[in-house]
Amino acid sequence: MDANRNRVREMSIARTIEKLRKNNMEAAYLPAAQDVVPMLRSLLDEHCSIAVGGSMTLVETGALKFIRSGLYQFIDRYEPNLTDEQIHNRFIEAFSADVFLSSVNAITERGELYCVDGTSNRVSALLFGSKRVIIVAGWQKIVPCLRDAVERVKRIAGPANAIRLEKDTHCTKTGYCVVPFCDDRHLMTIPPGSCDHGICSNMVVMGRQPKKGRITVLIVGEELGY
Q1: Rounded distance, CA 32 to CA 164, Å?
Q2: DSSP-based helix, strand, coil % in the chain, nearest 5
Q3: What are phi and psi for residue 157, nearest 5 degrees?
Q4: Separation of alpha carbons 158 and 46, rounded Å
Q5: DSSP string, 108-167
Q6: Which end of the chain is more exposed for a tag (fewer CB within 10 A), N or C?
């Protein structure tokens, strides 16, 4: 990356980390994806229980493979041949995990985390239950404000995830949401009946946290995930 553009990126990351800390979250910058696993090794206690939210970032950084190493008690939602009921039970178990590991759809420079979910097992565990939460996110997920976070989901994260999950939605055919721009009156939501098979059901903004340090955000200096 051009040195001047890189400097702009660094300033944005620094602003975001400062505001995350003011919102009672721990935050750190990791230059490369290969730095994620060593950082997780330093943050996690051996034999602790870990659950994860669905995340391409965890796959791309090697984090998912790492927590399957046998060092930890992994509540594995991806174990082969699980029934729907067993998967649901794994989601419930995540509430009592020592650590919930995930990514988010966007991070604002105001120190907010923005997530949009379908079944909402991810946002539920982010908000409550797990003793600690560790977020891993590529730097491209940083946006100036919530309006930009909403539009990032509508034009990038939402369509990419819907394609990955093979959903029959407007965004899998066009690459953008049926309502592609943020509506100040309704934020992420779309008109009833306009996307019956969509995955954007519940929208969560995480701002100042009541328990300091429960959430740790690792911002990686590479583009990762959706």
Answers
A1: 25
A2: 40, 20, 40
A3: -65, -45
A4: 35
A5: ETTS-EEEEESS-HHHHHHHSSSSEEEEEEEGGGEESSHHHHHHHIIIIIHHHHHHHTT-
A6: N
State mean pLDDT over 176-189.
82
Neighbours of 150 (CB within 10 A): 27
CATH number, domain of 95, equals 3.40.50
How many distinct structural domains can be found in the chain? 1
Q: Is residue 160 part of a domain?
A: no
Over the stretch 49-87, which tens digit does the pLDDT of each residue have?
999 999 999 999 999 999 999 999 999 999 999 999 999
Copy the structure tokens of residue 180.
């592609």
94 token code pair: 């995540």
Domain extent for 38: 3-106+130-141+206-220
* DSSP conformation letters of 70-82: SSSEE--TT-TT-
β-pair partners for 136? 218
Q: How far apart are CA 18 and CA 26, in angstroms?
A: 10
In this prediction the pTM is 0.94
Query: Residues of 20-34 as b/e, b for ≥16 C-beta within 10 angstroms?
Result: bbebbbbbebbeebe
Tokens of 30: 């990791």
What distance in Å separates the CA atoms of residue 47 and residue 63, rounded to the nearest whole number?
Answer: 16
Query: Greatest CA span in the chain, whole angstroms?
Result: 52
